[in-house]
Design goal:
The complex is a heterodimer. Chain A is an alpha+beta fold. Chain A has 2 domains: 3-78, Ubiquitin-like (UB roll); 87-156, Orthogonal Bundle (DNA polymerase, domain 1), CATH 1.10.150. Helices cover 33% and strands 15% of the residues of chain A. Chain A contains 5 helices and 5 strands, in the order ββαβββαααα. In chain A, strands 2-1-5-3-4 form a 5-stranded mixed beta sheet, with helices on both faces. In chain A, a hairpin with a 2-residue loop joins β1 (3-9) and β2. In chain A, α2 (87-94) runs antiparallel to α5 (140-156) and α3 crosses α5. Chain A is globular, with a radius of gyration of 15 Å. In chain A, 49% of the residues are buried. In chain B, β8 (146-148) and β9 (151-152) form a beta hairpin. Chain B folds into 2 domains: 5-47; 58-265, Uridine Diphospho-n-acetylenolpyruvylglucosamine Reductase, domain 3, CATH 3.30.465.10. Chain B has 12 helices and 14 strands. Chain B has helices spanning 12-21, 34-39, 75-80, 82-87, 89-95, 101-106, 109-115, 122-128, 142-145, 212-220, 224-227, 245-265; strands at residues 5-7, 25-28, 47-50, 60-62, 66-70, 132-135, 139-141, 146-148, 151-152, 160-166, 170-177, 184-193, 196-202, 209-210. Chain B is globular and about 55 Å long. By secondary structure, chain B is α+β, with helices and mostly antiparallel strands. The termini of chain B are far apart. Classes of the chains: A alpha+beta, B alpha+beta.
Chain lengths: 162, 272
């Protein structure tokens, strides 16, 4: 039976009418037309679908939309600040941390969660954290550099809001 | 996945009533196994009863001689908990090695052990630390809990409330992770407990179990040499595309040796 679910999405009140079996990523992409969150493997391994729910990163292909009732959901569309790229997004751009770009939204959402918990992560801490994010272009080297640079920009700049 | 009805009770009584009213209902904890299983249509419950809003099921308490962890406590909370890190450091380390960061934000202790997945990490800690599982009906000793692949001593309508892990002098966990999914191809945990040295193996067999040959050898002498000659019988072990039963049998001893080395470097905790 379709159910109305209401939550906060990228800082604003939002809602959708979904079946209980609707996945969070399906609601984001199909009901709310936010297609920045990708579906890669659909088996909670690849991390293309990572979003934040109540402040922590989760795989939106392995959470039901109805489970976000009352929650605070943030997607890649809510990361830019007043139309300007977030420092982490800029770091991915400047360090050429993407080739095809399919994994990038999930990588950035994962990276922002890491930096929130660990503002100055080492190379190995970044690599360990990215165990749940696959880049099939195998561009990890630049992704790790970008996250280091993004973390530094967030530590030293005024834009550390995520 | 097939459609179902979704319920989000806020009390245990309400959750139990929903289960009683619906023959094909299932509880959902973190959903890290159940949702993928439902996507593959290997499970098709009529109703999902979400336990996440029931407050009594979450939280971590230090009871002096033990750490008590609510069934719905997420792996990331256990990994980051100051109480766990101080009382049973190996348990925080183990929780921090489960799956990946996003799985650890959703997956729960109760969900993991109620599922009795042969490759789950927590069952090794339950058995080696001689934990007690508290349900809404009784207390279950670690040695009585895991019965087989995806099979536990839990009754159909029984809910895990919490797990109590006694603090031990020292313990170590060595895991050979699947490179892609990070589950334990084989994991071995050693714990120097109040009832002696206990050795638990996960990943290798149909469910986690105590490896008694290695246990007695290490009780006599807690050294790598004491177990180097032990050959684990592979007859009852799992075999799949990632590892044959013989390879898993070999890994049990290798992981046990690594755990012995780790254990030697752990400073014993002075009991209160």
């Amino acid at each position: 039976m379709p159910t109305k679910v209401t939550f906060t999405l990228n800082g604003e009140a939002a809602g959708a009418t979904v079946e209980p079996r609707t996945l969070l990523v399906e609601m984001l992409r199909e009901n709310l037309r936010l297609t920045g969150t990708h579906v890669g493997c659909d088996t909670s391994q690849c991390g293309a679908c990572v979003v934040h729910v109540d402040g922590v990163s989760v795989k939106s292909c392995t959470m039901l939309a109805v489970q976000t009732e009352g929650a605070d959901v943030r997607t890649i569309e809510g990361v830019a600040i007043k139309g300007e790229l977030h420092p982490m997004q800029r770091a991915f751009h400047e360090h050429h941390a993407l080739q095809c770009g399919f994994c990038t939204p999930g990588m950035i959402m994962s990276a922002l969660d890491l930096v929130k918990q660990n503002p100055d992560p080492t190379d190995s801490e970044i690599r360990a954290w990215l165990e749940g994010n696959f880049c099939r272009c195998t561009g990890y080297q630049n992704i790790v550099r970008a996250i280091e640079a993004g973390a530094e920009a967030m530590r030293t700049g005024d834009l550390a809001r995520v | 996945m097939y459609n179902f009805n979704y319920h989000r009770p806020t009390t245990l009584a309400e959750a139990k009533q929903l289960l009683a009213e619906n023959d094909e209902a299932k509880f959902i904890a973190g959903g890290m196994t159940l949702l993928p299983t439902m996507k593959m249509r290997l499970a098709s419950p009529s109703d999902l009863i979400d336990l996440s809003q029931i407050e009594v099921l979450s939280g971590i308490r230090d009871t002096g001689n033990a750490i008590e962890i609510g069934a719905m406590t997420r792996h990331a909370e256990v990994a980051a908990s100051d109480l766990v890190r101080a009382g049973i450091p190996v348990l925080a380390e183990l929780a921090g090695q489960i799956g990946d960061a996003q799985v650890r934000h959703r997956g729960t202790l109760g969900g993991s052990i109620a599922n009795s997945d042969p490759a789950a990490d927590y069952p090794a800690a339950i058995l080696s630390l001689d934990a007690v599982i508290t349900t809404d009906q009784r207390e279950i000793a670690a040695d009585d809990f895991f019965l087989g692949m995806f099979e536990t001593a839990l009754a159909v309508d029984e809910v895990i409330i919490s797990v109590t892990f006694p603090k031990c002098a020292r313990a170590a966990y060595a895991k050979f992770p699947n490179p892609a999914s990070r589950y334990a191809v084989v994991g071995v945990m050693l714990a120097d407990t109040a009832v002696g040295l206990r050795v638990a193996v996960t990943g290798a067999g149909p469910c986690a179990y105590r490896e008694t040959d290695i246990e007695s050898a290490l009780q006599a002498s807690c050294t790598v040499d004491a177990i180097s000659e032990i050959a684990v019988d592979s007859a009852e072990l799992n075999s799949d595309m990632h590892a044959s039963a013989d390879y898993r049998a070999h890994l049990v001893v290798v992981m046990a040796r690594r755990a012995v080395l780790q254990l030697a470097s752990v400073e014993p905790r002075v009991s209160a």
